[in-house]
Write a structure and sequence with these properties.
single chain, alpha+beta, L-fuculose-1-phosphate Aldolase, 8-stranded mixed β-sheet, 6 helices, binds 5-S-methyl-1-O-phosphono-5-thio-D-ribulose, binds zinc ion, zinc, MethylthioRu-1-P_deHdtase_MtnB
Length: about 210
Amino acid sequence: MNNTAHVHQLNPNAIALCSLGRWIASRHWVPATGGNFSIRQGENSALVTASGKDKGELSPQDLLPVSWQDEQLSSPHGTPSAETALHAELYRLDPAIKAVLHTHSVHATVFSRLALADSYLFSGYEMQKAITGIKSHEQLLPLAVFDNTQDIPALAKQLRQRWQQKPLPFALLVRGHGLYAWGHSLEQAKRHLEGWEFLIHCELERIKLTGLP
Ligand SMILES: CSC[C@@H](O)[C@@H](O)C(=O)COP(=O)(O)O
Ligand SMILES: [Zn+2]
């Protein structure tokens, strides 16, 4: 075992993220190596999942240290997620963000293709209060929707433009692709992910039953 692997084995953040990956996979939100996760390590760096791994079978060595001071967003220890630039942009936009979780659930993927505008407003759900800052089911809760692209730096640029108009409430949806959720701790990121997945599932069911988007 080299030094880096040894350090990661003992890193409680890495261990916690691997364990959360198993829970997320048990919900069927990261099929076929889809999804990626990260946890902040410092002001300018995070541990990011290695590309192409089964996110339900991560071990600490699969979490690669990446610094966004280096424009390459590379790691000497392997190839970080293809979507690392989006994680890095979120960490740059809000220094309070501690963890970012990206999933490919069936519900979020299908819903994202029905949400045709660049934002979808949720209202009327008690579960909206799972999102930090939301105090009532009557409050309007917007979910930003971006078109999918393989150009992740371009997507990160769109995110920055949208965020500068108004910070996003702990999630965004990429059309035909999946959900990103984040938080000011790993536990909060998990709660936001579960809350948003629940809200999206409910809206999808409502649209299926009523035909009304
Ligand atoms: C299984 S295809 C999914 C990928 O294209 C991508 O969207 C994804 O979420 C996982 O990419 P990865 O590079 O493993 O982090
Ligand atoms: Zn993805």
